[in-house]
TrEMBL record:
Classification via Pfam families: ROK
InterPro entries given in the database record: ATPase_NBD, ROK
Species classification: Bacteria, Pseudomonadati, Pseudomonadota, Alphaproteobacteria, Hyphomicrobiales
Organism: Bosea eneae
Similarity comment: family membership: Belongs to the ROK (NagC/XylR) family.
Entry superkingdom: Bacteria
The name this protein goes by in its record: ROK family protein
Signal sequence coordinates: none
Length: 312
């Protein structure tokens, strides 16, 4: 059985793991993302993670999920990806191919996470849904008839750019600016003299009766509900699937969004849509981008077989 070693590079952590063709995660780990790392240092870090994890037993290919839009022909991030600036300075997949001697594939992290859910998680039972990933940034993907909707050149949807209101200066406020993890913590800090806490602690404080924590979470959930409502109204979705680090709050998150959603959705559509947490959690991106590599390996094998048949 073929295996792919996958990386999922985010604004706060680099997740990695060895994925089997049937979707089993055979090995996995996570290290903090160092924002100040230069491109060459990031490449070396990823290569060493592979070498240390595999200990001389090579995978068949590599796969990298990353934020923003990477040029299809090079893998260099050319739009977005502000939380991982080093990816704009070179092709991470080309560098890893040269360093490790393995073929490498790449994809947008939100689209990869949605593919993971479609092929191995919550999306297996859904035809039309949107995955919204909420973490250091906000991303995700639109799935129609089991396939991600992307631009002709591979550009992923920019769900974090959906406008959900106005800021204090009257300027348009994006979903990412309102509902990402940093935005949630900043909203709390603006109401209190307390130091910023983790999102998990914020939910715990809200459950314990902290009004400022509850207000910060409510603002976040209202932004998600507003964006989700627009998508449901336009696309007649079966579900909104929530992923990313903030989705670790589970029912405490989905309960609030369910309560807010009817204000933004046509009633007959609201009655049919489900709000659920991604089944694969933080492994969705790894599994999804690995599936792209498996497809690439299969296509390469088919092409070699066709060439050999034509030659004989």
């Amino acid at each position: 059985m073929k295996t792919v070693f996958a990386f999922d590079i985010g604004g706060t952590a680099v997740k990695f793991g060895l994925v089997a063709e049937d979707g089993r995660l055979l090995k996995q780990g996570e290290v903090p993302f160092e924002r100040d790392l230069a491109f060459a240092a990031l490449c070396e870090q990823l290569a060493r993670l592979y070498e240390d994890t595999m200990a001389g037993s090579p995978a068949d290919a590599l796969a990298v999920a990353m934020p923003g839009f990477a040029a299809p022909d090079s893998g260099v991030v050319i739009d977005g990806g502000g939380n991982v600036p080093a990816l704009r300075d070179g092709s991470i997949t080309q560098a890893l191919e040269q360093r490790l001697g393995l073929p490498a594939w790449f994809g947008n992290d939100g689209v990869a996470a949605a593919l993971g859910e479609v092929r191995y998680g919550a999306g297996q039972r859904l035809n039309r849904f949107v995955l919204i990933t909420i973490g250091t940034g906000v991303g995700g993907a639109v799935i129609i008839d089991g396939q991600p909707i992307i631009g002709r050149n591979g550009h992923p949807p920019e769900l974090g750019a959906i406008v959900v209101g106005n800021d204090d200066a009257g300027e348009p406020l994006s979903l990412e600016a309102r509902s990402s993890a940093p935005a949630m913590l900043q909203a709390y800090a603006c109401q209190t003299d307390a130091a910023a806490v983790s999102v998990r602690q914020l939910f715990e404080q809200a459950e314990a009766g902290d009004a400022a924590a509850e207000a910060a979470i409510d603002a976040t959930c209202r932004g998600i509900a507003q964006a989700a409502g627009a998508l449901i109204n336009a696309l007649m979705l079966e579900a909104i699937v929530l992923g990313g680090g903030v989705s670790g709050a589970g029912e405490a998150l989905t309960r609030r969004i369910r309560m807010l959603l009817p204000a933004y959705v046509w009633p007959s559509l609201a009655a049919k849509v489900d709000i659920r947490i991604a089944e694969l959690g933080n492994t969705a991106g790894l599994l999804g981008v690995a599936s792209l590599a498996f497809e690439g390996l299969a296509a390469s094998t088919h092409a070699r077989g066709a060439w050999q048949a034509a030659k004989s």
